[in-house]
Amino acid sequence: MAWLCAIVATTLALASPAADELDRGKTAFGRAEYVRAIDILRPLLYPEIRLDSEGDVVQAHRMLGVANLFGLSRRFGILTGGATAISINNGTTALQLAIANSGGFVATFIYPNAEKPQFHRGHTVVLGLLVGAWIL
Fold first, then answer.
1. Is residue 2 domain-shared with residue 51, that is, in the same domain?
2. Do residue 99 and residue 111 come from a single domain?
3. Alpha carbon distance 10, 74 (integer Å)
């Protein structure tokens, strides 16, 4: 029984500090503290990867990418027309959701059953919107 306790204690003592840092990064990311998440996650991935599993590396890269997308606008204080960076993010998110949700009723009209299975008109409209969104 003593040897089992020794093994458990050794395992806990050898727990990866990188795993603890990843957990801190996940917590910061979950709380939308993107600048803090960037500061925690970047050293885990660059200049060399300190994480043990490939799944953790992929997850850390994804969180770091999203945190950079949302966090850097606040870090550098990008402001437009007196609006704060937070209100700009909220406004663009609301606009994106409104446009995406409108696709549900538009799809009813651009994908008629008469054009099965190719749906040339429907795919053309969707491709046009995709290119338009990409340009914006």
1. yes
2. yes
3. 43
Rounded-to-integer distance, Cα 100 and Cα 112, Å: 20
Max CA distance (Å), the chain? 75
Q: Which residues contact 40 (CB under 8 A, 6 or more apart)?
A: 21, 24, 25, 28
Terminal-to-terminal C-alpha distance of the chain: 65
Q: How many CB atoms lie within 10 A of CB 93?
A: 11
Q: Considering only 19-33, 45-59, 67-81, 113-127, which range has the smallest mean pLDDT?
A: 67-81
pLDDT at 13: 43
- Is 38 in the same domain as 93? no
Once rounded to an integer, what is the mean pLDDT over residues 94-107?
74
**Tens-digit pLDDT profile for residues 7-47:** 544 554 444 688 889 999 999 988 888 889 989 999 998 88
CA atoms within 13 A on the CB side of 114: 3
